[in-house]
Amino acid sequence: MKMPYILITGGSRGLGSFLAKYLAKYNYGIIINYKENINEAIKTKEEIAKISNIPPYIYQADITKENDVLKMLEFIKEKEINLEVVILNAGIDIYLEMPDKNYETFKKILDVNILGNFNVTKIFGDFLEEKKKGSLIYINSDNAIDRNDYISLEYDVSKSGLLMLAKDYSKYFKWVKVHTIAPGWLDTRMNNFPEWVKKQIKFTDLNLVGEVVLKEIKSKETGNVVIVRDE
Ligand SMILES: NC(=O)c1ccc[n+]([C@@H]2O[C@H](COP(=O)([O-])OP(=O)(O)OC[C@H]3O[C@@H](n4cnc5c(N)ncnc54)[C@H](OP(=O)(O)O)[C@@H]3O)[C@@H](O)[C@H]2O)c1
Question: Tens digit of pLDDT for each residue in 27-77?
């Protein structure tokens, strides 16, 4: 039997890279998708190759480009990879003070966090549905549930839209399981704050997120929404 593979969007760094290494320890093959940071994608791939006998892959694709996502699926088919799980992790935030917020920045955030994830859901969800097996794991944020603030307005709107996207698809798919993981603050480049600001934030342990993602991958239910944070 072919080993099951997990595709992680935005797997080059931050939470995506952590999850890639975490899940590789549990005998999953890993495909790391990235947008531009090839060096960090290669580094993650090399780290996985040290701990796993299942060959990891990297693949460049901008999830906001439908054609990139289609080509990523073609790559997986050509390699005859047994894809079972997609972790929709890629996401962006751009912090702007209230008076500086603007249409173009808002649009950029919605484009990646909602529409890019729509491309991945439609293309990979339909593929897994045809196989009659698989899971889509959405990396959302507790901002979409109970930790919103006006400073992250665009991000909060995008993540609550993503929450509904996952909920609706969980009702649509017959075979594919859909789960949403909503972590609290994570110490990644997304929060590129000065050290004095970081000291005031209670970051969530990435291992805790890894544990929950693994549990949801194995879950037989669908539509779960799990908040993960150190209280
Ligand atoms: N950081 C937090 O406090 C926090 C809290 C809760 C939830 N989250 C969520 O966790 C996820 C990961 O965040 P992070 O903190 O790890 O962020 P990060 O360190 O900034 O990493 C973002 C990742 O997304 C990729 N990416 C961005 N735009 C993309 C696109 N258009 N197509 C493909 N890949 C793209 C990046 O690829 P490149 O390296 O190639 O640019 C990178 O691998 C996000 O969905 C975020 O909203 C974060």
Answer: 999 999 999 999 999 999 999 999 999 999 999 999 999 999 999 999 999
Q: From ligand 1's centre to the CA of 144, what distance in Å?
A: 16
Please report, for the domain that includes residue 194, its CATH number. Answer: 3.40.50.720
Residue 69: CB atoms within 10 Å? 23
Pairwise CA distance, residues 68 & 117, whole Å: 13
Q: Ligand 1 centre and the CA of 190: distance in Å?
A: 7
CA distance 84 to 73: 12
Report the atom number in ligand 1 closest to the C-alpha of 90: 24
CA distance linking residue 222 with residue 228, whole number of Å: 18
- Position 87 confidence tier, pLDDT thresholds 50, 70, 90: very high
Q: Verify whether ligand 1 is closer than 6 Å to residue 34 (CB atom).
A: yes
Is the C-beta atom of 64 inside 6 A of ligand 1?
yes
What residue numbers bound the domain in which 131 lies? Answer: 5-228
Secondary structure percentages of the chain, helix, strand, coil, to 5: 50, 15, 35
- Compute CA 67 distance to the chain's CA centroid, rounded to the nearest angstrom: 19
Task: Count structural domains, the chain.
Answer: 1
Q: How far apart are CA 212 and CA 203, in angstroms?
A: 16
The dihedral through the CA atoms of 127, 169, 229, 217 has a sign that is negative
Contact 121, 167 (CB under 8 A): no
